[in-house]
Fold:
Amino acid sequence: MTITFYYGSGSPFVWRVWLALEHKQLPYELKLMSLQNGELKKAEFLAINPRGKVPVLVDEGWVIRESAVILEYIEERYPGRPIFPNNPRDRATVRRVISEVNNYLYPVARRLLEQTLFRPDDSGDPVMIAQALKDLRHELRYFEDALLGDYFVDDLSAADFTFYPMLALVKRLHDKQPQHGAGDLIGMKLAAFMQRIEQLPYFELTIPPHWKA
Structure:
């Protein structure tokens, strides 16, 4: 088995795959790609992913792109320590959560980050920030209601690995720019969920490298 994992530090799409690889205890080689210095647009990487994005997984020469597809692929290729349930209804729930994170939560969080964390000079538009915070509050309440137990289904799954990095980004924004109050939008149930993920024995291996600095 030869797996190469191309990743960028801090990407929530990367993080979900990284958590899944560790959960499945798959051996892999890490290839850190800078998100700032143009590495993703170099010909060598574009030959692997013409869209110039991470994550990318190369499994014995076969290239898999798009994080949700990578999660499905490694589940089918390496079914041990599953990240998708066998029960079709639970499996549908996991896929639904992944889709909702991608289509609803991430765009809202991205709008907020573009006006805050990605602008260290505090030059974001106050109106856009206020609207993004309002929309984020709505989304996080939705997911809090959807989290009926410790995880989105009975056991730890790809849904949890997909959702957690979004909460971590909100928390990082709060740590860096507390004046926006983003962390206050994470309710008690979601905070407890974060703690459960952070207590996983492999969690610290997946923390974005530049967050440790």
Q: What stands out?
A: The helical segments are 12-23, 43-46, 67-77, 88-115, 126-146, 158-176, 188-198. The two ends are 32 Å apart (CA to CA). The domain at 88-198 is CATH 1.20.1050.10 (Glutathione S-transferase Yfyf (Class Pi); Chain A, domain 2).
